[in-house]
Specification:
Layout lengths: L1 H8 L3 H27 L5 H27 L3 H35 L3 E11 L11 E5 L5 H14 L4 E5 L2 H9 L5 E5 L2 H5 L8 H4 E12 L14 E8 L16 E8 L4 E7 L4 E4 L5 E4 L8 H12 L5 E6 L2 H8 L3 E13 L12 E10 L1 H9 L7 H20 L5 H13 L1 E3 L3 H16 L8 E4 L4 E8 L4 E8 L1 H14 L45 H9 L4 E7 L15 E4 L12 E7 L9 E3 L11 E3 L15
Parallel strand pairs: 2-3, 2-4, 6-11, 8-15, 18-20
Antiparallel strand pairs: 1-4, 1-5, 6-7, 7-8, 9-10, 11-14, 12-13, 16-17, 19-20, 21-22
Helix pairs in contact: 2-3, 2-4, 3-4, 4-13, 10-11, 10-13, 11-12
Length: 645
Amino acid sequence: MKILLKKFKKTKLSIRLIYIFVLLLFLVSYVFLFRSLLLLNNVETVLRIIVLTILGLLLLLYSFFDLLLLLSKKHKIVVISSLIILVISSFSMIGSLAINKVYGLLASISKETVIYTTNLISLNSSEFINDGTFSVGIINNETDIEGNILAYELIDKEKLNVKIEKYDTYFELLEKLYNGEVNGIFITSNYAAMYESYDAYENIASDVKVLFDYSKEMKNQDYIESNASVENPFTVLIMGVDSQYDGLNANAAFNGDTLMIISFNPHTLNATVFSIPRDTYVPIACLKNESSKINSSAAYGTKCVINTVENLVDINIDYYVKINFKGVVDLVNTLGGIDVTVPDGIKFCEQDSNRSHAAEVLQCIESGYQHMDGEKALAFARHRKTLPAGDFQRVQHQQLVVEGIANSAKNLKSINDFYAVLDAISRNMDTNMTTKEMMNLYNVGKSVIFGANKGSLINIQKTYLTGYDLTMYVNNLRGNVYTFQYYEQSLEEIKDALKITLETKKATPTKTFNFSVNDEYEPVIVGKKYYTVQRNETIPNFHGQTLQYAKSWCEARNITVYINYITPGATGYDDTLANETVVNQSVARGRLTKDVSHITIDIISKPTSVVENITTTPVTSEGENTEQTTTTERVEEGPAENIEE
């Protein structure tokens, strides 16, 4: 060894330094690449082993044989081989950096921490006075971060001397604020995007002002760990977030207007897709299963949405993906725009990504082929108010945007473009899928291209939830709103299709079918049928109607009617109404008839003489008459109050 060391020291200094430098660089690059390739988990395991084995052998060969060449003073060969190894080392380092960058971007998709923000807002006409008289509404739920936890922290931080009023829902808070029953409310900073789609609050952005705001970075409270594997059949819930912010590292509450369930079987490459209409009337899990529009569940965070959807479709949601619509702007612009053919009959103008209606930023869409930039693509995906089919048509437009993005992504020309796209995705997406599971999706894609069914595409089973429109009173939304009432048969068909894809239910084979070469083939869409079942009905507004009409209407629906006669001078008496017409009712207009067993109606009584006793006859559920005597002279208690059943 000493003799070898002496000979090594006697070699030419410059060549010796080149050898040492290249050897160390090759060793470092090999270690970095080794660590990077380990991150790829199950991606091309055989290929990774081959690459590491070849590079390891090259490292040993270079360190041994070039040392012999150096000692033999074959300097020219040492320089040439060192240059070759230098190039290999450079590629190894570049590969390591690329893998680490991609892995880091994928890892950032799952948000470990979130910046939660609460705002104390009031109507523009309200003045804040910190003297204990200013009343503030707060959510009566100690686990609600933005509506309760941060609200109390803000009160302590700013030393606010306010009067606290507790309410169960955010819509109740907004109602109390707009009615002047409280001076201010605590609400998420994303309130404009969440509530302006409701008629009562369509101008909320300009109606209110922010008195105080408070933000805090916390562990993501909405993260739901999954024990599933993408190597087995799994489900994904995709939630579109219409946020006023770029990125998804802020706010628990969001606008849940887009909800899509995908069940996927990696073995058969079958997928079932179910888009849930935003106005679907369902029990909301975090509101003690009180029914409301499904998009309202998003106001209480991801867990509430997932639990609500799971109860609806009777399957477990393995993974969720939240996608911020505003990120569409960055993504589409990074891709250089997308090509979309807008369906016939479409013509509208929509606000920009900052929700501005200024003429210079307004995005106008018309039918026909268009090359859209990010702002125009977002407007096309977001708009629904003037569409003939409303939210159903908006879902179709969103699918066209997704297709356009997928087609443009095929044309990426550089690694920097790829990084930019991945960066836009990572900032505007949140998921509970681990980086390891994301990596495993590579094998799913590989099986599509190179698997047993080489060249086969994923078989996508489309679904369509059939139902009907119904404007009704929704308690937690505090008023009469449009809802979508689905047919149970349609939902059952969709649930079965989801379960068949997941292999938790066996498909019923079709034994007979009709076929004609003259008929154009139409793919089967699960659930898209019209049913003749009885539809839900709501209580009408009886005000101004005759007593006979109200009694007949209720009698036909087995609703017991109690009558309260209102005479001149009594509270609630309306002299403009005819005798024996309805002036008030105890059950609010829009309540579902099936949920009402009895109702009290106030009737105008214009007697020609003082009436001591009036016999009224309520209609019982059996249709029998039950006499009941009511004293109505100088009734001071007024009409029956609106009782919310």
